[in-house]
């Protein structure tokens, strides 16, 4: 037998074996698992907006008669009934579904009225199910309305002992009103909550105008309506595209206000936060950023919430623009959150697909039409049965003496009644079951009134069944009642503010990072450290024995520092990553990959617009931009390509129009800077020629200001440099008398 063929029992058979390809068997079983996850766990039904576990919860509570007017029952009892009769899964998952339907910060229109600890907006969990109690809300009651009138199909439960509804009648637009989230196999759904009154208005628009476009429907639905409020800042075009395609997202910001304090000071109070954001984690996130000094405009954050959200933000000072402060928080924290839209649902045929807003509302209306027809047919059947019985009763009153005689004297009174008065078996049984007290004259009048009333109702319902226009008018009336019940008042008023796109606030990105002045100290032996503040030039600095100062650079804590080494490489150091304090610091070789033979040639703060003159000891060099010196890796960036046996000799800022180069042979050459090319990497051009030795030093200066050099503590300037002026790559002449014997300009 091939390796990919295994012996497996046939599907649905507990015994026997059959040969099948392993790939085919795995594919078959994984597909069954995937379809089960998609249809029976993760995706809601477009008609009632419920997943199986939620539907079973509501049905079980309905069976327990936990209507809004009834008392509460322990959640453990409810979960037990659901798990034992309808939903053979873990009790924790069932209880979590129950809890979420009871949380007013998670569900826009809670389906469960909870009593006890059902969690909070901070993200705390609910109490154990043995401590909490629940019953249905009026919204859930609307979802179940008509379920006992043959409005929907029922199916057997998993063990065949009970019946459960395939879908609820759903007089409430639950899918969009409460939303849904779920991850299935290969697909997911994410539907934000909406305002029920607005949904009903859009549904009425669709009934009045079946060809209504998404744009026309959005006149009634400006966007989602989250239970936690907030401010919707998405553009109208993006909202329309999202509802048109069924895919998109909505940006929601916290709602805030400025509260004035004493002497011009103020605080910012946030009283609404974005949907699905845990308040405690949000405050923890802000506190972490404050500790990392990434929110320079914010001084402190406090949580003064009770059952109402109240987060207090204190700015660093009274001059900070509150809008700019909030903009920094929106960019860096979950004070702004993006809620995705993925209208992936099961349609009326139980097929998963992504729908647009119009399709979803159309599917709900079509379901309400089916429910109306089924309830009407159920009512007509009940009226017909009752009229049949009432017709028999009226015959009794018209022939009372004969009926009494038959009942008293006939051996088979039912057959005799049916034969004598042409009654049906149902009528005959009803007459024989009558009590003597029902033979009163008053009772006859009641029966006639009931018969007249039912006959009138029957004609009205038959007229309804014969006219589609009347049926849609009836559905519109039902939706209008739903809008009145759930579209206004504390529960129905819109909570999420909408309107035009928020004006953009231009913020300097540098405002997000706190800066402080520092002095970066590099020793001769390659130890580096940073001290707070800009130290004076004569400040006393300590070093290890035998070590001294190489370079001291004034910088900001957010700067990048360039280190140019004798190997021709440029290295980048972040000032914020340097060791702080008055100690010896840390060897540079631990921060960048330099060998012991390499020495630091230049050390300076990175400046984007600056240019630098770099040259090797053989006298070749070029100009390089500051950005070309930045290296992203510890290994650095090879800028100056060196010949074997040579090393970098110069890296100086090029500010001016003239170059002065000095050889080890003590020859000075001055030539225009324009003769030096700009390059990002390479060997460059010959700056000065030598018979022996190489380049000692170079400097870029402004010709009008003259060439200067330091002689001891004095600064000497040579205004007339014409004796040494020439072209690049020539030998040059001896420098002026008094030039330093070190062959250095500085």
What does this structure look like?
With 746 residues, the chain is of the alpha+beta class. It folds into 5 domains: 43-172, Topoisomerase II, domain 5; 255-334, Gyrase A, domain 2 (2-Layer Sandwich); 361-492, Topoisomerase, domain 3 (Orthogonal Bundle), CATH 1.10.268; 515-606, no CATH class; 609-624 and 646-746, Neuraminidase, CATH 2.120.10.90. Helices cover 32% and strands 23% of the residues. The chain has 18 helices and 35 strands. The strands form 12 sheets. It has a 4-stranded antiparallel β-sheet with strand order 12-13-15-14, with helices on one face. Strands 21-19-20-24 form a 4-stranded antiparallel β-sheet, with no helix packed on it. A hairpin with a 3-residue loop joins strand 19 (517-523) and strand 20. Helix 12 (357-398) runs antiparallel to helix 16 (441-466). The termini are far apart. Residues 1-8 have low confidence and may be disordered.
């Amino acid at each position: 037998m091939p390796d990919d063929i295994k012996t497996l029992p046939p599907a649905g058979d507990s015994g026997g074996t059959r040969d099948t390809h392993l790939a085919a068997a795995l594919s078959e079983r994984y597909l069954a698992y995937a379809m089960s996850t998609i249809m029976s766990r993760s995706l809601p039904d477009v008609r009632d907006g419920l997943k199986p576990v939620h539907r079973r919860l509501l049905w079980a509570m309905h069976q327990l008669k936990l209507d809004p007017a009834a008392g509460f029952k322990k959640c453990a009892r409810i979960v037990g009934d659901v798990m034992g009769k309808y939903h053979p899964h873990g009790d924790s998952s069932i209880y979590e579904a129950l809890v979420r339907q009871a949380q007013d910060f998670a569900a826009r229109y809670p389906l469960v009225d909870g009593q006890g600890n059902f969690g909070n907006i901070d993200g705390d969990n609910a109490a154990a199910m043995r401590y909490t109690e629940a019953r249905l809300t009026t919204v859930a009651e609307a979802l179940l309305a008509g379920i006992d009138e043959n409005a929907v199909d029922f199916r057997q439960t998993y063990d065949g002992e009970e019946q459960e509804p395939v879908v609820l009648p759903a007089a409430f637009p639950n899918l969009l009103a409460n939303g849904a989230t779920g991850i299935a196999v290969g697909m997911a759904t994410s539907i934000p909550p909406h305002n029920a009154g607005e949904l009903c208005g859009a549904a009425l628009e669709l009934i009045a105008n079946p060809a209504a476009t998404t744009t026309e429907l959005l006149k009634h639905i400006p966007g989602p309506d989250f239970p936690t409020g907030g401010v919707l800042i998405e553009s109208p075009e993006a909202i329309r595209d999202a509802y048109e395609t069924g895919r998109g997202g909505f940006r929601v910001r916290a709602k805030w206000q400025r509260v004035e304090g004493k002497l011009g000071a103020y605080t910012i109070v946030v009283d609404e936060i974005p949907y699905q954001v845990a308040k405690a984690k949000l405050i923890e996130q802000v506190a972490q950023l404050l500790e990392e000094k990434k929110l320079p405009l914010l001084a402190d954050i406090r949580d003064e919430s009770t059952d109402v959200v109240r987060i207090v933000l204190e700015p660093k000072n009274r001059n900070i623009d509150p809008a700019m402060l909030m903009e920094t928080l929106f960019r860096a924290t979950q004070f702004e959150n993006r809620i995705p839209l993925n209208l992936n649902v099961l349609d009326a045929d139980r097929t998963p697909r992504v729908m647009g807003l119009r399709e979803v509302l159309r599917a709900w209306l079509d379901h309400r039409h089916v429910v109306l027809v089924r309830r009407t047919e159920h009512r007509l059947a009940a009226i017909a049965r009752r009229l049949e019985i009432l017709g028999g009763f009226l015959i009794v009153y018209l022939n009372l003496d004969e009926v009494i005689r038959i009942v008293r004297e006939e051996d088979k009174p039912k057959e005799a009644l049916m034969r004598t008065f042409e009654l049906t078996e149902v009528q005959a049984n009803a007459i024989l079951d009558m009590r003597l007290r029902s033979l009163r004259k008053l009772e006859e009048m009641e029966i006639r009134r009931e018969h007249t009333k039912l006959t009138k109702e029957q004609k009205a319902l038959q007229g309804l069944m014969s006219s589609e226009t009347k049926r849609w008018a009836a559905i519109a009336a039902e939706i209008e009642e739903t809008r009145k019940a759930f579209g206004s008042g504390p529960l129905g008023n819109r909570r999420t503010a909408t309107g035009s796109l928020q004006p953009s606030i231009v913020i300097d990105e540098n405002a997000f990072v706190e800066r402080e002045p520092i002095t970066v100290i590099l020793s001769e032996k390659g130890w580096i450290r940073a001290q707070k503040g800009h130290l004076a030039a004569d400040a006393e600095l300590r070093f290890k024995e035998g070590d001294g100062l190489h370079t001291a650079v004034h910088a900001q804590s957010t700067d990048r520092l360039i280190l140019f080494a004798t190997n021709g490489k440029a290295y980048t150091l972040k000032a914020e990553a340097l060791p702080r304090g008055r100690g010896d610091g840390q060897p540079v070789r631990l921060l960048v990959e330099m060998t012991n033979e390499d020495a630091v040639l230049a050390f300076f703060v990175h400046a984007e617009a600056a240019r630098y003159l770099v040259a090797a000891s053989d006298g070749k060099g070029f100009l390089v931009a500051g950005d070309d010196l930045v290296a992203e890796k510890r290994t650095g960036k090879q800028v100056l390509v060196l010949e074997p046996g040579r090393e970098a000799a110069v890296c100086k800022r090029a500010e001016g129009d003239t170059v002065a180069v000095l050889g080890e042979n003590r020859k000075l050459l001055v030539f225009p800077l324009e003769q030096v090319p700009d390059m990002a990497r390479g060997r460059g051009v010959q700056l000065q020629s030598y018979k022996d030795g190489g380049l000692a030093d170079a400097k870029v200066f402004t010709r009008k200001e003259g060439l200067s050099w330091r002689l001891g503590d004095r600064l000497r300037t040579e205004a007339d440099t014409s004796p040494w002026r020439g072209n690049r790559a020539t030998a040059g002449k001896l420098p002026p008398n008094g030039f330093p014997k070190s062959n250095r300009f500085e």
